[in-house]
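Contributing: when you submit paired examples, paste them exactly as shown. First protein:
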Amino acid sequence: MDRLKLVIVDDTLIVRERLRDTIAGIGTYEIVGEASSPAEALALIEREQPHVVILDMKLQGGTGMDVLQEVRKRDAQIRIIVWTNFPYERYRAVSKAMGADYFFWKATEYDKLLDTLRSLPGAPTNAHQE
């Protein structure tokens, strides 16, 4: 099976580094890029056409919701995992309504994020789950 292409979008370098190092150990993924702003993220996603995007809510010069909305206009098949420090149910509901496949809180759900990455099937679909 080919490796799934993954993009990490987070405004904090140390978070991106930690994710990159951990995901590299999973083996199923090829991290094809990282971004810290909506503009960088959208350009990267357009260029690389990833299967999975890990997306922070707070970005430099905008929000993850800006990215989520634009990506969903262009491609319903990319799996989008919202990964945030803002665990509010309202944000979860809005993220899901806008097309996020998953929503995890950075402080307590790191293992759930990794378990989800390990369990994603090789062929991307738009199955919205939590």
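Second protein:
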Amino acid sequence: MTSLHIDASIGCAGDMLLAALVDAGADRARVSAAVAAVLPGATVGFAGVQRAGLRALQATVSAPDTSPFHTWRELRPALTASLPPEIAAGAVAVFAGLAQAEGEVHGIVPDEVHFHEVGAWDSICDVVGGVAALLSLHPETITAGPVATGSGTVTGAHGTLPVPVPAVVALLAAARAPVLPGPASFEACTPTGAALLGHFVDHWQAGPTGVIEGSGVGAGTADPAGFANTVRVFVTADAPVPGSAVMLETNVDDIDPRLWPGIQRELLAAGASDAWLTPIQMKKGRPATTLSVLCRPDQQSAVARLVFRLTPAIGLRVLPVGKLAAERTMATVAVAGCPIAVKIASWEGAIVNVQPEWEDVATAARELGEPEKTILARAQAAAAELWPNPRNP
């Protein structure tokens, strides 16, 4: 499973994230084609630069002086009509979040948000290019660490505003993003950067996990002394997790509950040692279910692939789990001529549990026309003879 982690600990602007994705291997041709489809004549160039003495990639957009789109209402149909469906869907979602945040800040409906607020042609290029770049990397899950917002003030169309500006506050709050001021005394996280993070990120964590297979560094315009003004991204792949077992977990709130028994059967048939469900309540009060799957470390990728195929999950927690297992042996007892397997568990050489196998109990009950509880009691009584006599172990 391929994952992407975004390091926004210095901040995040749309052009910085776009450059970092391209530096990590995103398809430049796909980015350029998507931008030109929305804004004919627009181009995106990339050049190597230095930030605090470190190499980075900077994105430079060239486009007409004015955008043909003035409000979110005007831009939305243009995105849908000109872009491939998957890129259009992502770009619409990012701009919808941005327009919603700006509308809340200024007390207007999102459709009427003007482009000096959601960004002019440069923001269109950053968002459309960023979505195209991300899709070309095909990550199965996206994470990010705390977002540096910056500090001080910024001057815009509405005058001087405190950093983080209100739209950034609204966007990062909606995404439940952890924040910190960071080292910058300027606008380190822009509304476009915050909107892209809010759409992309599945969950927030301190750093990348797994095996790092690639990375990219995107440069901001400013090159202040004392720190590298960059966004970093890491492309990672699953690695075996140390320990005798791995537990994969995901919270699901959008599934027909009748699917769960079949999902558990398939997971167990694929080799998982256990799979169980726990009812939970998610944010905003939504009822949901946590699926937990226990498997060997070498089964992690196969089990994750199956969970993604069978459920709506788009992310998994991976937890190393230590195990203590009693030694198991099998024996057989008979109830009215029906064989019933019995599992015998031993710890440090002593028998600690003797238990009939339920499937055999149920089969015998059907064959004999007796209640399952009756057959279980008789099987347990027969199995009790397998315990050693305490006087003569």
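If you have annotations for the second protein, write them as plain sentences, like these:
The longest helix spans residues 85-106.
The chain has a mean pLDDT of 91.
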